[in-house]
Amino acid sequence: MAARLRALPAISLSAVLPLLHGRSSFPTTAGKSLSFRRFSSRPVARSSPLVEVSAQARRGFSFQEDDFASTADLCFESPLKIVEYPDPILRATNKRINTFDENLKKLVEEMFDLMYKTDGIGLSAPQVGISVQLMVFNPAGERGEGEQIVLVNPVVYKTSKRTILYNEGCLSFPEIYADVERPASVKVGARDITGGRFKVNLSGLPARVFQHEFDHLQGTLFFDRMTEDVLESIRSDLKALEMKYESRTGLPSPESIDQYERRKEVAGFART
Ligand SMILES: [Zn+2]
Q: Which carries the bigger pLDDT value, residue 220 or residue 34?
């Protein structure tokens, strides 16, 4: 997700930074406070019903061997580059990760490097051409400030009924910003960089960035969630990106906003 913040809850970095350093709330334009809990890496108890359900599902459906990312899937070339719309990589299936090694750490480090360099606050693996369930973010958007978050194989357990409209940008859509409505808070689970499982409640900007990046891992792009009117307001920008792709690759654009059919709502529930 791109860093530029404007309109809607006009959250300034100075408002976000204390939040990420452990204070519990920050104001929104609605005059209400959004709470934020620090990320913790608490292992999930073996008796957790969620773990049991997951274990049963594993036995019941016996996943294919290619269910997890292979070494080749996680292979990358430095420096990483941002994949822009309409590259089909952004719509590809992203595999879950079960190898937590030095290569993964290096990938994460390079993703953070690229995110800061491109003025981002969140970045997903498919956006650098790696089709795996991995995202990094830091709502502060500056190295050494805020908190660097790494989520591997994230799942959404719960979303709030209350939704918020927010002006989003995306590194895969340079210079395009538009309003997207999303739940105000989410309860999520994931693995950390060492493979440890954790759960966390997110609200405010971290909830917004997480949901944007989580969508990328499902092959969903931010304009899939825009209203018709909002989508209309960026139509020409999307067409310009499609033409840029065609002239760069010599290939027809794999998708076209002029033939766009709204994608099915993403369930938002997946397996860790
Ligand atoms: Zn994005």
A: 220
Return the DSSP state at 178.
E
Is 30:10 a contact under the CB 8 Å cutoff? no
Q: How far is the CA of 82 from the centre of ligand 1 (A)?
A: 10
- Cα of 95 to ligand 1 centre, how many Å? 18
Domains annotated for the chain, with CATH where assigned, are 13-164+183-220 (3.90.45.10)
- Determine whether 255 is an active site residue: no
pTM value is 0.77
Structure confidence by residue, pLDDT tens digits, 181-201: 999 999 999 999 999 999 999
Computed over every residue of the chain, the mean pLDDT equals: 82
**101 CA → ligand 1 middle, Å:** 26
C-beta atoms surrounding 191 within 10 Å: 23
Task: Take residue 174 and report the two structure tokens written for it.
Answer: 């340079």
**Tokens 């990046």 — which residue?**
213
CA distance to 25, 161, 270, per residue, from 126 (Å): 32, 29, 17
CA distance 203 to 30: 15
Res 4: pLDDT: 62
Taking 3-state DSSP, the helix, strand and coil percentages for the chain, each rounded to the nearest 5, stand at 35, 25, 45
CB 212 within 8 A of CB 139: no
CA of 119: how far to CAs of 1, 100, 142, 174, 196, in Å? 9, 27, 8, 11, 29
117 DSSP assignment: H
The residue annotated as part of the active site, out of 84, 168, 213, 242, is 213
The two beta strands, 163-170 and 173-183, are antiparallel
Backbone angles phi, psi at 227, to 5 degrees: -70, 165
Work out whether strand 134-137 and strand 185-191 pair parallel, antiparallel, or are unpaired.
unpaired
